[in-house]
Amino acid sequence: MTEKKALEAVVREIAAGETSLAYQAMFALRESRQAMATSEKFSAWVDGKARPEGYRLAASFVPGREDAVAVAGFRFLHTLAWGKLLYVDDLVTLPDFRSGGHGDLLMEWLVAEATRLGCEQLHLDSGHHRHGAHKFYLNHGMRIDCHHFSRVLGS
């Protein structure tokens, strides 16, 4: 991926009805989720369950390719701890397009959107083993503020 290609990229929001454009990139991050089995299942899950709860998608597109090469899934939250924030659920670039500036463009877009909508902070969680992602986030002015705990429920 050349520097020129990243400069030609366009970041825009993906609307309901065109969610499948995010599938290939999102599959690279979330392939083990049942909702990722097919593009149709992914689109139905995002448009039917996540979007009604405020989930949105932004993506980086390059000329000559219909599907997104990088995608961010995000939502807005109000918390007592941090006020109004933009929370990034998902941020991924297709392996062949990594280090091409697409993540940078998405982060810039997310910060601008959060600022435009009056957010006080931008947050995300990242798997403890994703050291390359951590370096990327730290280089974009993010801090490691807390530990995230989870518990699987049910069978």
Helix-strand blueprint:
Elements: H1 3-8, E1 10-14, H2 23-30, H3 39-50, E2 56-61, E3 70-79, E4 83-93, H4 102-116, E5 121-124, H5 131-139
Parallel strand pairs: 4-5
Antiparallel strand pairs: 1-2, 2-3, 3-4
CATH topology: Aminopeptidase
Q: Strand order of the main beta sheet, please?
A: 1-2-3-4-5
Could you say which structural class the secondary elements and strand pairing correspond to?
Answer: alpha+beta
Described by strand count, sense and barrel closure, the largest sheet is:
5 strands, mixed
Radius of gyration: 15 Å
Helix-strand topology string: HEHHEEEHEH
Number of helices: 5
Q: What is the second-level CATH architecture?
A: 3-Layer(aba) Sandwich
Total domains: 1
- Give the percentage of residues in beta strands: 15-25%
Please report the first level of CATH classification, the CATH class.
Answer: Alpha Beta
User: Going by CATH, what is the homologous superfamily?
Assistant: Gcn5-related N-acetyltransferase (GNAT)
Please count the beta strands (DSSP E, at least 2 residues each).
5
Low-confidence stretches at least 5 residues in length (pLDDT < 50)? none
Structural features, described:
The structure is a single chain. The protein is of the alpha+beta class. The chain has a single domain, classed as Aminopeptidase (3-Layer(aba) Sandwich), CATH 3.40.630.30. Helices cover 32% and strands 23% of the residues. The protein has 5 helices and 5 strands; from the N terminus they run H-E-H-H-E-E-E-H-E-H. It has a 5-stranded mixed beta sheet. Strand 4 (83-93), helix 4 and strand 5 form a beta-alpha-beta unit. The mean pLDDT is 91.
